[in-house]
Amino acid sequence: MVPLLSERCACGSPGTRISISPPADIRICSKAGRELLKELFLRDYGFADFLEGRIILLNKIAGIDRRDQVFIEGRHIATLWFDITTGSHRLDLEIGGAALLAQAQGVDKNVLTCNEKLLKGHIKGKWIPKESIQKDIQSDIHSDNQSNTQSDTQNDNQTDNQRDNQSGIQSQNVGGLPESLCVGDNVILRIGKFSGVGVVRRRQDGSKSIRILDVTQKEFRLSDRRASLEDVIRANEPHLKRMEKTALGELRDFLSRTRLPVNVSFSGGKDSLAALCLCLKVRPRPDVLFIDTGLEFPETVKYVRRLSDLKKLKLHVIEGQGDFFQEAKSFGPPSKDFRWCCKTHKLGPLASFIKEHYPKGCVTVEGRRIYESFNRSRINFIERNPYVPGQTTLCPIRNWNALEVMLYIYWNGLEPNPLYDEDFERIGCWLCPASLQSEFVSLEKTHPQMYGQWTAFLRDWADKKNLDPRYADWGFWRWRKHPPKMLEIAKAHDIDLLITSGEKKEVGLDVVRGKSPCGLEYSIEANLTVPQNHPFPAVANALAMIGDVKYSEDLGTAVVKADWGKDGDMGKGKDKDKDKDKGRCTVFASGHIMIIAQKKEAEELLKKVVETVLRVQTCTRCGICEKRCKRGAIKVRDTITIDEKRCNRCGRCAVGCIVAERAAKILRRGASA
Question: Is the pLDDT confidence value at 155 over 50?
């Protein structure tokens, strides 16, 4: 039995559709992932032989961190997840796994045989009376450092769990609930002809009991013949050919209509490898661009060079700029919603390289896919890079899932980056905040020196910001604005997420200046610390005093197109010359500011943006600005509000404003930052 990407096998036999949770970016389990599953099944049930030589598929689903559905021969047998509070992986048994293990010889842990009287009435969700447990099979229980909770039981009493989890004790019960079971443990249930899965919960009276999650009468026996990867590729060859034909058709059609030079963006990951493979079938000798940010895995750098040599490709290694760790001392660690490092180490060097080597522009084939993130859920085949002028990108594999990508690679006789064997899901900068916390834990085993360097930095940074050590150790640093689930964990464990400093600065500004990533002379990247007294939409509204604003509520950003008067000063009347590029600024709800303009205009734009944000967030409601505006364009209630249609951006409302004067002082302090 093999996984199929379409309704029929290459032999013509029909497949059986299986249900998987969205986004359905299913992938083949890695070698290290297989070893992890074996370890967990042995720990929980004393048996893992059934995993040997089987094709195991993983499907990433929503969760706080890693959370994968585990499939074997079309059945969902378990859910693998990572508990950030303990730094360990857990396994939730699913009904398919219970049906498989209930019949297996060799399972000697967490199996309970129950009285068939339980089958009367509604079964799911039923508590199992102790007298209904006829016998149990247990061995040594879990050690103290193992997690006692499931993701959906985060609020279970931690003290109770720790008291339950006493290492080395063995159950002597014959009937009744084994004392060795801990709250959150899964158990296999044998109930007559039924198999089931249950979980240990604590009842209202404080006692432990088992609640039935699901039961089935269907048997699940694995095939005697164990399919190989070659079998999977052979079965899916017609589908792979159709995928390739569609992608090559798009590439040939576009490239036949352009005279621009063609290159491939190759990161060393599986997606860019598939894109490179496609491009080679249309343009045999494209340039290959690899951005070495200075934070790449050493295995990735070697892999990119080796593959380029093997295929005799012209490889351009674009070096990142700046000292990451020095910059991080000022800006703090990059986060999912504040990836400042991409500018200095990726976009800037790329823009400079393309401007120098492709002055008339270029076409870049990329491996971006819609499954990778929410931000990439709407990728077109043809894209224009807003940060790199002159670069047109083509995305031929945008609709492929991870399984399709990897099978296509193997079908073409290529070997992916060896880091995938180590259970890394994404191949990029080794300290990227977009990686899972579980991958940082894996980093300790695979690259202890890099792990130690980054962990030491995070802990030192957290200490200087008066943060709980768990802010670094549990991965809270990966966000500036934390998602609800992380906020819940912080609340449950009494972790203060407010970033402060030893100086207790209420307002502060950190600024980095340098070459612009979009080809202009100058850019500024700043981080403004200011009290969040008003919601970000109020800031976006007030930025209309500077220029035209495009506000994205979902992303928490406001993009300002600067409006300069005829005399060259900002805010001296709306400029009718809308075609001239006078600079842009992106303001984030987190306080991050990105500016791209000529040097003089960029500095003036920073001044106006800082002034505007401070006026909104620290408004004293004195009303001076409202009185100075002759057009009635500004009103003061809880803070300032701008009528964009009335405002002519004259700047008079800032004259005499105490907050605007404060902004000038902040800028002077941050001038040398």
Answer: no
Collect contacts of 576-581 with beta carbons under 8 A, ≥24 apart: 581/520
- Look up the CATH number of the domain holding residue 379: 3.40.50.620
Same structural domain for residues 273 and 413? Answer: yes
Question: Which residues have C-beta within 8 Å of that of residue 196, sequence separation ≥ 6?
Answer: 95, 98, 123, 188, 189, 190, 212, 213, 214, 215, 216
In Å, what is the CA distance from 130 to each residue of 164, 467, 672? Answer: 18, 46, 71
Mean pLDDT of the chain: 84
283 and 397 share a domain?
A: yes
What are the tokens at 409? Answer: 């690679």
Question: No. of H helices and E strands in the chain?
Answer: 19, 25
Report the number of distinct structural domains present in the chain: 4
Q: Which of 482, 500, 518 is the last residue of a domain?
A: 500
- Ranking 26-30, 333-337, 390-394 by mean pLDDT, the lowest is 333-337
Rounded to an integer, what distance in angstroms lies between the CA atom of residue 112 and that of residue 198? Answer: 10
Mean pLDDT of 301-313: 96
> Is residue 18 in some structural domain?
no
- Three-state SS for 359-414 is CCCEEEECCCCCCCCHHHCCCCCEEECCCCCCEEEECCCCCCCHHHHHHHHHHCCC
pLDDT of residue 515: 65
Does 396 share its domain with 476?
no
Print the domain residue range for 274: 241-425
pLDDT score at 451: 96
In a domain, 276, yes or no: yes
How far apart are alpha carbons 335 and 330 in whole angstroms? Answer: 14
Residues 67 and 140 in one domain: yes
Does residue 53 register a pLDDT over 80?
yes
- What span, in angstroms and rounded, lies between the C-alpha atoms of 476 and 483? 10
pLDDT for residue 149: 38
Residues linked to residue 564 through DSSP beta bridges, in sequence order:
570
Residues 512 and 369 placed together within one structural domain of the fold:
no
Q: What is d(CA 75, CA 69) in angstroms, rounded to the nearest whole number? A: 10
| pLDDT higher than 90, residue 199 | yes
Are residues 491 and 524 part of one domain? no
pLDDT at position 123 over 90 = no
Q: What is the pLDDT of residue 154?
A: 40
Question: Is 523 domain-assigned?
Answer: yes
Of 446, 474, 500, the domain-final residue: 500
- Judging by beta carbons within 10 Å of its beta carbon (0-12, 13-18, 19+), is residue 192 exposed, middle or buried? middle
pLDDT band for 579, please (50, 70, 90 cuts): very low
Residues 567 and 541 in one domain: yes
For the full predicted model, state whether its pTM sits above 0.85: no
Q: What is the pLDDT of residues 463-521, one digit of tens each?
A: 999 999 999 999 999 998 888 899 999 999 999 998 765 444 567 888 888 765 444 46
Give φ, ψ of 551 to 5 degrees: -110, 130
- Let me know whether 352 and 465 are in one domain: no
Q: What is the pLDDT of residue 165?
A: 39
In a domain? residue 145? yes
pLDDT, one tens digit per residue, over 220-236 is 999 989 999 999 999 99
* 358, pLDDT greater than 50: yes
d(CA 654, CA 611): 9
DSSP class of residue 296 equals B
